[in-house]
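User: Some background: our group keeps a shared notebook of sequences we're curious about, and every so often someone picks one and asks for a predicted structure to add to the entry. Today it's my turn. The entry only has the sequence so far, pasted here. Could you supply the structure so I can complete it?
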Amino acid sequence: MPRFAANLSMLYTELPFLDRFAAAAADGFEAVEYLFPYDFAPADLAARLREHGLQQVLFNSPPGDWAAGERGLACLPGREADLRDAVATALDYAQALDCPRIHLMAGLVPEGRTRAELRPLYIDNLHRAAEMAAQAGREVLIEPINTRDIPGFFLNRQDEAHAVVQAVGAPNLKVQMDLYHCQIVEGDVATKIRRYLPTGRVGHFQVAGVPERHEPDVGELHYPYLFDVIDEVAAQCGWQGWVGCEYRPARGAIPSGTTGGLAWMRA
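Assistant: Of course. Here's the predicted structure to add to the notebook entry:
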């Protein structure tokens, strides 16, 4: 089976954030990811990782003003300096947490603009971000996100993301392949795993049930088959990444909380 990382922004929300590390380790996770670490000192997060024998495998760079609706800066004209600061902050945290990769959210298409108009800026920004990350020994990931969850998001399809990575041409720029978003936008998920994983451009997977974003055993995707596909292709091409569990537990209200919904992983 793939190696699973607990997304602590969505799992174990019945607990305070810093207590979620222990809960994830107790349930057998060996790695964690989350959206943003910036409400906590790097030393405090690093201490939780060490205490519970966990690897930090992913988090997002600062996305701009989240409360005001911003969902990333990489496609936004006039925000280049803010983006560089965000990447620098993320890389500081990545070093402290020994995290090999950061996700750089693309952002929302501004009113009156088109994706085609913004693409050159997006590519330029990714090139600079990848250069900064390379100097720190880190990878930068980009993620296609469905426009039902984030209307107006710049990047939506796997083929678009891989074309961008090829256009930038940086070996440390890769695609974060979230199978939940992929199914909603495109479908044909297994074929896309077989197509893109051998290219070396997939840096990370994420999973959730479709359409409600609950456990992988809830919904229309048959994840046991997809996990077998990942295993098969990974063995052929030497991929050794992680699969992030970025879902909202449907069973979170029961006394056992997130743990009660992990039968899919134990199986």
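Suggested note for the entry: The radius of gyration is 18 Å. The beta strands are 3-7, 31-33, 55-60, 101-103, 139-142, 173-178, 202-207, 242-245.
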